[in-house]
Write a structure and sequence with these properties.
The chain is an all-alpha fold. The chain has 2 helices and no strands. The protein is elongated.
């Protein structure tokens, strides 16, 4: 939904900002995946 807005912000940010944003995004995605995996193991 807000993909173009995020892309615009990322293009405005300098390179260190892009790297930091990418690291944060990866960390959040990893935490979500781990949470889903843990929930699946606990429920199953």
């Amino acid at each position: 939904m807000g993909g173009c807005c995020v892309y615009r912000v990322m293009s405005v940010l300098p390179t260190p900002g892009q790297t930091l944003l990418r690291i944060v995004t990866l960390a959040v995605a990893t935490m979500v995946a781990a949470g889903l995996l843990l929930a699946g193991l606990l429920s199953g």
